[in-house]
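ARCHIVE RECORD
Type: protein–small molecule complex
Small molecule: iron/sulfur cluster
Source of inputs: curated submission
Record status: active
Notes field left blank by submitter.
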Amino acid sequence: MKQSCPVPRAFRLSVFYTLEGVVARMDAMQQELKAFKDPALARGLIESIQALAPESATLMEVCGTHTVAIARNGIRGLMPEGVRLASGPGCPVCVTSNHDIDKVIALARVPEVTIATFGDMTRVPGSTSSLLAEQAAGRAVEIVYSPLDALRLAQENPDRQIVFVGVGFETTTPLVAMAIKRARAMGLANFTVYGAHKNMPGALEVIINDPALDALILPGHVSTIIGAEPYRFLAEKYGIPGVITGFEPVDVLQGIAMIMCQLHEGRAEIEIAYARGVMPEGNPVALAAIDEVFETCSATWRGLGEIPGSGYRIREEFADFDAMRRFQPDVEEVREHKGCRCGDVLRGIMAPSECPLFRKVCTPENPVGPCMVSSEGSCAAYYRYY
Ligand code: SF4
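STRUCTURE (tokenized, with ligand):
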């Protein structure tokens, strides 16, 4: 008999496509968000999970923001015996390879270049240096909060070449695409991008069998852009259920409860628990922007290796905005950090606390690997909350 999971009333984001829609829904949204922290609702969902869970199951939370939400709200400890929540590769800073970091560092060493990057990236160690170390050595590295900040930097500093470090999944790729288009429209000749963007579904195909996973808690942010369709193959080809969910405590529990429903009923489908943010078809405007500026390519992921079709590179038509093509710096030979197990952590093979360096040598103040640097990194989340 079909079990139904208790779910809070949700609303769709489609009304947000206009500014008026955003303003009109703000108050309602604030009210509705309270429901996603409701203790009574959370208790009901926990009971559903307990009642429906199989004897043993491994669920992977793919997204780094989910890893943090699960740790912060103590959700791992609420799981029935036999149910394991493994953290996955959904932290963009963490999966950026040493080689990519080394290339950005090589760009930072070009005299006329100013690197514009999100803060986390400055602390990620490359083979022998980091952007923070390069900044201390006198290179120009600026922290920005969006690609548009980098555009502004380019406008205000016409004597400098601004290179924006484009790292992230489908969530940030459209913003970078828009920034490149705007730079072209403005005739900015001193703005380029180092592109290390990745797409999520291809990586999931690599990780679902090692370790064997029973279900996926699918990322909310990425799915606002790509929708549910790109994950469909996981259910149809591999029989792995997946639920796209949000980041409040009730969101996460709702997603897990819906997964338990599927496992209980022997179904494998891709469902959306995050209906207030995700539509099945995704965001067509953002997808069109990605497609106009980028094309898919092979990409190297930390811990997962090279995955065909899992990266984005700037199309030939926008080659003027590709920093590596413009500056062609010498890049040092890649070296991996001894003892760091970020690769295994990103695959869900080991918990951060099982890394021999965790807390002893590797801390947020003195990180050995990117999983301890990033605010979305599994090691940083374990350090803070367990
Ligand atoms: Fe790497 Fe530090 Fe995490 Fe160990 S604790 S896997 S060294 S980031």
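CURATOR ANNOTATION: The pocket of iron/sulfur cluster is lined by residues 340-342, 345, 352, 355, 357-358, 362, 368-369, 371-372, 379 (CB under 6 Å).
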